[in-house]
Amino acid sequence: MSRKSISRRLQARLAWITGLAALALLGFVAFDIDRMFDQHYSTLGLTGLAYEIGDHVVLPVLVILLPLLITTPWLVRQGLMPLETAAERVDATSGKDRGFRVETEDLPEEAVPFVNAVNNLLTRLDEAAERQEAFAADIAHELKTPLAILKLEMDVYGDELADKVKADIGAMNRLIDQLLLIAQLDASVAARSPWDRVALREVAEDVIGRLAARAINDDIRLELQVVEPVTVYGRREALAAALRNLIENSLRVTPAGQRVTVFVGPSAQLRVRDGGKGLSPEQLSQLSRRHARADHASKTGAGLGLAIVSKIMGSHGGRLETRPDRRELCLVFGEEAAAVAPKRARRKAKRPDPIPGGQ
């Protein structure tokens, strides 16, 4: 079904009006010519009468109709220009500012009711997203508080059963955090929450610092290599959660004595290289679905790790990629999230990466 165009409809109606006016004018001219022919044919002759008709009839008609036909499309486009400007403003702001509303000052009076309705819809979406975020935060708090109390009570006991219960409590806390993050991402995407400038190096350093003790305990070297200092637009806590999931997966599959390396760059990407077998694109696609589990996955998990990573990257206009030949999982950012990196850093990107699995 083709869309109806206001511009084409106005032009068509103006063309009909112009055509009817031209027909009426031609009818009057035909009547006047007939009378003129009877009165002046004997004195002017046929040639003189033709010149007389051209000067006093045809030329005025052309002077009126031609400018009208030429300027009508331009006038219609100029009249609709404020609508196009408003659409460009909305498109440029989308994904950056929650609370954005379309301004009505420059719009024609006929478009104001429609724009007001759109603004009211945006207000309701913002309110719904805020309620969802608050609800998710309240639920997480209500669930995590008794778990924290239970874990403190288990600290009193030092037997093997207490350790198992504490491990289960930790798994439940991680599950709650993952579910909360999913709810926050859904609300953020629905309301187009504002993004911040995020330095990927800072995110990587923070996540590696949090997981360093676990890597040391597993006798795995956890390293960071900054190929290019990249800055992107996005939600810092969500990007940190995505990278943390990838590193935790790498720590599970990497044998003791080997290394897990996090690369920042080149261009807008984060790469995690480990000592495992790597994932094929088919395996990654399967594991990116919720509740899908790999053979090495934690038995206490819910199968949400890579699904959350894929969802986070999708909300940033990017994707989760696998490079099995290099045993890497990569967070690749889209054009909307990517920011320009310093030019001086681009020369460093030409350096080859270390050999996969090298010590």
From TrEMBL:
Chief location bin: membrane
Segments traversing the membrane: 12-33, 53-76
Pfam families named in the record: HATPase_c, HisKA
Main EC class the enzyme belongs to: transferase
Signal peptide: none
Annotated SMART domains: HATPase_c, HisKA
Subcellular location, record wording: Membrane
Catalytic activity: ATP + protein L-histidine = ADP + protein N-phospho-L-histidine
GO molecular function: phosphorelay sensor kinase activity
Keyword set, alphabetical order: Kinase, Membrane, Phosphoprotein, Transferase, Transmembrane, Transmembrane helix, Two-component regulatory system
Membrane topology summary: Multi-pass membrane protein
GO cellular component: plasma membrane
EC number: 2.7.13.3
Keyword Membrane found: yes
Domain Histidine kinase: 138-321
UniProt xrefs under PANTHER family: SENSOR HISTIDINE KINASE CUSS, SENSOR HISTIDINE KINASE YKOH
Name of this protein: histidine kinase
